[in-house]
Amino acid sequence: MPKHYRPAGKKKEGNAAKYVTRTQAVKYLQISLPVFRKLCILKGVFPRVPKKKVKGNHHSYYHMKDIMFLKHEPLLEKLRDIRTYDKKIKKAVSKKNRDLAERLLTRKPSYTLDMLVRERYPKFIDALRDLDDCLSMVHLFAALPAVDRAVDGEKIPVERVHNCRRLSHEWLAYISRTHKLRKTFISVKGIYYQAEVEGQIVTWLTPHALQQVLPEVDYRVLLTFLEFYETLLAFVNYKLYRSINVNYPPILDPRLEALAADLYALSRYFDANGKSKQIENQQEGTNLDESEVRLAQLHQHLPSNEPGALMHLLDDGSNKDDQDLETRECKSLFKNVKFFLSREVPRESLLFVIPAFGGTVSWEGEGAPFDESDDSITHQVVDRPIQGRKFLSREYVQPQWVYDCVNARILLPTDKYMVGCIPPPHLSPFVDNEAEGHVPDYAEAIERMKAAGRKEVLPLPGTGIEDLDDPQGLLVSDRQEAIEAAKRKQQISMLEKQYLDELKLELKGAPPFSQDIDAVGGGDDAISDVQQIADDVSNMSKVVMPRKKRKLLEAMEMSKERKRSSVNRLKERKKNIDQAKNLA
Amino acid sequence: MKPLKENGSDKPKKNEKDRKKLQKLVAKNMEETLKRIEEAEPGTESSEDSPFVSGEGDSDDGDNDGDLVSEGEDDDNYHAEDSHGESDDSREVVEESDSSEDEVAPRNTVGDVPLEWYKDEGHIGYDLAGKKIKKKERQSKLDSFLANVDDSRSWRKIYDQYNDEEVELTKDETKLIGRLLKGKAPHPDFDPYAPYVDWFAWDGAKHPLSNAPEPKRRFIPSKWESKTVLRLVRAIRKGLIKFDEKPKEKPRFFDLWDDSTSAERQGLAYIPAPKAKLPGHDESYNPSAEYIPTQEEINAYQLLFEEDRPKFIPKQFANMRSVPAYDKSVQELFDRHLDLYLCPRVHKKRINIDPESLKPKLPSRRDLKPYPSTCYLEYKGHKGPVITISVESTGQWLASGSKDGTVRIWEIETGRCVQIWDLGEPVEQVSWNPKPEVPMLAVAVGHDVFILNTKCGSDEQQKTIEEILHVEPQKVEDDSDSTANVVTWGQDEKHGGIRLKHFKLSKKQTQRIPFKTKGIPVATSFHPTRSIFFTATKKDVRVYDLIKQKRIKKLDAGVREISSIAIHPGGDNAIVGSRDGKLCWFDMDLSSKPYKVLRAHKKDLTAVAYHRTYPLFASCSDDNTAYVFHGMVYSDLNENPLIVPLQILRGHSTGDGRGVMDCKFHPRQPWLFTAGSDSLIKLYCH
């Protein structure tokens, strides 16, 4: 008799009825496996783990309710229609009935995933919460080459790449415009950004702007995901744009678009849109879209670093009440700093980051708002040792300076970031150094600088024209941070004291061991004895623990030990490096 | 057919007889396929073949060609003539071509087998008579080449592997092949573009097939069509159908999350996928120097298993422009998304607890005082590992036996060695008389047991001891069943005692254990109050009633190898030490399984001991430690014994590969004696 025998005619119950394997599910839905995969991806159905795996351990199980959910999806029927329609086209083509084929092609049934987005994310917050993978993928595909290799079956259509590029720019423009960017990190894999949108932390990775490597993977899976992500991101962008009273989809200045300065074009569009709302009554009778385009072009001719325009920009942001402290702090970081980007620096990333923190930026090339010879430029971002002509009035910094400033939220001294020298280590802002147990030197240095900056609000040496009537937000936030830091310090000292007390108590509780040491005849030194006693105390209670708990405790200790050993390894390396430095 | 006919009639006729023969042959040749050509056998058809071949051979090439061409033409017209006049003959030709396979039997009868089978043989097959057909001698390459050069017709020669001979193709055959190569019909006479003969044309074709009259419906307009037209016209008039307008496009994107509709998720509970891990300092393009592994460490990674190797090796780039594209970005994205749709998701409770909270709440050790905690005295003097110790019941004397063959008696308070016996052999066990008024010592050495007068008591006590220790010379016992275990009870003058074995002390007679023990006993013990006897074998502990002489209980420790046992002074609890470092507490009223298993030691337990009065017990092990536990047994049967580990006693060092060999409590004080293999005895006091 099989293990899970059920008499004929008896209804299935429990796990056998609730969960089906993938093969069963495919059979039940009467679809092919690729279609099933596609549906699962689009509907967000994933396997689940039943309590009892009726069919064995090596299957993936789907909940029957999930399968029913797929079964009643209108998309399923639509996909079937498309399949039959494709067959019709194929038939017409192979019968050389070109007319029919063309006519059929023009009326091909299509589907949208709008309602699926709505279904999967009933609230906007839910969508934002799940946006990490979406953004990473869209940004990566925006950097991929369009591939049309019919032989391998992999095909990345060029429209999809363009769409991804557009969507990613729209997202970046929104984040930059609303100053929601919080952290950046240049890693080997690309540049990580972290933004806070409506209270949700969104982190994404953009690849370095270079030719990407295309490995042999199943691109159909990726493209199916991308299909959903494109729809999702477009709707999210729509919602976000609407929240700041900007029309979506944006209409960009074709000239800037041709120059591949989409991000800048978008920011111009924002300005234009904001202004058009204000002067709408003046521009009556004209087509709204056209006026926007014209306005954008108009702005193009105006020097955009004109203070009036800038002030308008800032006003636009600051009249919102719901802006929190952090946003205000972020907004004013590069408030009076004017950047110029050289040719070799990652322009797109810097065009995104610098305006996000309130700076003005231009670049070398056509369509730039101001050119290199502008006297008001305070910082020039370069990544090449040889410069044609150097302006004495400005600082020449490596791109890392911008990112480090952003993470530290202060303007760091630029002397270490001079062109041609290796900049100080770039540290990840996502790491909690205290929790990790090892604080890199430069992190400490930054902390010290921050503390110093808080005590005395002096303009840093790098920024000569740091205005003194700086926004109040900065001061407020400084004070708050100081309070927080003081609290933390107090807590740490308290903990230390407590620990010392406990140690003392332990020693008192232990018998007068100095005497026994004599009796034993000169044992080890007292420190190791104390260590021994502490160990013993901890071991003692382990003796009476049940095995299950003991194993759990051991596992926890092991993981702690692993962490500690990795920290120790770092410290060891650090010591060796320092020693080598001292010797040299 | 017709042009052929005309053609044929134009040409003149020549030598009738010769032509007939020739025609036959050529017709046949034309019909044959290449294979058949090769297989054509001159022997069987010599009558037909010979004229042609000989003619060709005799005449020179140029002539022959001309002849052949003319003959071919002739043949054509002859054929036509044939079809015209001699229908019989032509049919014969056709038949011949069809069944040529039957007619021209192959010389070789080997059949349709791969010829490789005959590769190494001297023959190529068998003829009709069943004789072997010998292979021809192979020409050397040079010869064949020279022959080829000399022979102008060599290009026409084909080697017939099957019959092992060279066949020369005739002109017609080559022509036939040429036609086949061009994709034409093999027969030159075949006309693919012959005019169509309409077999179905007949004279009376002007009449229709059917004489039925045209139906009326062919003449009246369709009702349904007019209805459809009417419908369309109406729709156009109403403006439902528009021609010049494009369908108005709705905006592609809209506010999907407006608050008008309910925001409830359908279906099962959504489990959000865990977010991707955020990068640490080491993934930076310019990490801090300590995050970059040294070259040695990178080399060491190669020694690791592939799955253990770090996936990512930090590297430093001097500036941002030198950072290359990350080659695994698509792969990593793909892996992540495979996880997203293929990995089963479960809500897992992450245990985020303080590890300290896992540890059981034990009563404070301070409340459980007194217990031995520190080393107070050392008893030095033994030359070898101290195997066994015993404390006198008054608590004044300590006896110890060592591997160096000596038994020593120490004064506990001072640590002075009072007496030494050298017994010559390693001492296995020493034990004081439990009665304090008769201070005698039993010592097990090798196969013997000594009972020694320690001379520790007063003069009266000495007298009684001497009385007890006096033995008559051995007399042969009558008991037949005890003869096997006869033990000599002899006075030992040298040490002032007696030597003996299993015994009843009062009668000075040995008594045999009346029960069978399974396995070798490793430790034994008496019940402190009742006449019950515990025997521990390697696997389990058996409890025997000595009066009823039967087994009353079996305790299953579930450990690998039992090494020692001790009984609680109350008698209801026992502790058993094992060689896998476990200590089992048995509550004998509760169950035959251990009430608690304590895994304290890392190595073999050597001895366990209960304190006689204090709620203490101890275990010692080869890992040079002794544990002291608080073991409170309540008189209330509902309450389980309370076991609290109190102290780990260290101080002994390893000697002889062993650690602490024995431990005993002081009978009155909460003190513990431990005997170590480093030839020391230590006293731990509170």
Automatic annotation (TrEMBL), chain A:
One of its GO terms (biological process) is maturation of 5.8S rRNA from tricistronic rRNA transcript (SSU-rRNA, 5.8S rRNA, LSU-rRNA). Residues 329-419 form the BRCT domain. GO terms for molecular function: ribonucleoprotein complex binding; RNA binding. Residues 561-574 have a biased composition (Basic residues). It is found in: Nucleus, Nucleolus; Nucleus, Nucleoplasm. Keywords: Nucleus, Ribosome biogenesis, rRNA processing. Coiled coil: none annotated. Residues 554-584 are annotated as: Disordered. Its main location: nucleus. One of its GO terms (cellular component) is preribosome, large subunit precursor. SMART domains: BRCT. Required for maturation of ribosomal RNAs and formation of the large ribosomal subunit. Belongs to the pescadillo family. This is Pescadillo homolog.
UniProtKB/TrEMBL annotation, chain B:
Residues 1-19, 29-39, 77-94 have a biased composition (Basic and acidic residues). It is found in: Nucleus, Nucleolus; Nucleus, Nucleoplasm. Gene3D superfamilies: YVTN repeat-like/Quinoprotein amine dehydrogenase. Residues 118-372 form the BOP1 N-terminal domain. GO terms for molecular function: ribonucleoprotein complex binding. Signal peptide: none annotated. Residues 1-116 are annotated as: Disordered. It holds the Pfam family WD40. PROSITE patterns: WD_REPEATS_1 (PS00678), WD_REPEATS_2 (PS50082), WD_REPEATS_REGION (PS50294). Its main location: nucleus. Transmembrane segments: none annotated. WD repeats lie at residues 379-420. Keywords: Nucleus, Repeat, Ribosome biogenesis, rRNA processing, WD repeat. The keyword Nucleus applies. GO terms for biological process: maturation of 5.8S rRNA from tricistronic rRNA transcript (SSU-rRNA, 5.8S rRNA, LSU-rRNA); maturation of LSU-rRNA from tricistronic rRNA transcript (SSU-rRNA, 5.8S rRNA, LSU-rRNA). The keyword Nucleus applies. One of its GO terms (cellular component) is preribosome, large subunit precursor. Residues 57-76 have a biased composition (Acidic residues). Required for maturation of ribosomal RNAs and formation of the large ribosomal subunit. This is Ribosome biogenesis protein BOP1 homolog. It comes from Erythranthe guttata (Yellow monkey flower).
